[in-house]
Write a structure and sequence with these properties.
Pfam families: DUF5323 (PF17257). The protein is built from 5 helices and no strands. By secondary structure, it is mostly helical.
Length: about 110
């Protein structure tokens, strides 16, 4: 088995030098350059989109989303922020602050 099967591409090998040239200029040797990959990996989202489960059965294709019962109403001490104006928010915040009790101190 050759090295190119492990790396999947061409390998650049430095040319051989005669003995006198190798003594004066040391060579780092084994410089591998991978030019291109024949089988690049998919990125995560592309892989999940390709391998996601598909609806192939007719009963599964015709299936509708689940219908859940409506949520119960909020407790009376809760208020929905989107249903009141900014003036009412200030009033509610001030009433909550005035009704709050100071924590007991231990002395």
């Amino acid at each position: 088995m050759s090295i190119s099967t492990y790396f999947g591409g061409r390998i650049s090998v430095p040319p051989l030098l005669n003995s006198s040239a190798s003594k004066t200029a040391p060579c780092s040797g084994g410089n591998l350059v991978i030019e291109c990959s024949s089988r690049p990996n998919k990125k995560a989202t592309a892989h999940h989109m390709k391998t996601r489960p598909r609806k192939s059965q007719p009963w599964d294709i015709r299936r509708k989303p689940t219908v859940y019962p409506p949520l119960p109403p909020l407790p009376p001490d809760w208020t929905a922020v989107s249903s009141i104006s900014s003036d009412e928010i200030v009033e509610v915040a001030s009433s909550i602050a005035s009704s709050a009790q100071a924590p007991p101190t231990t002395e």
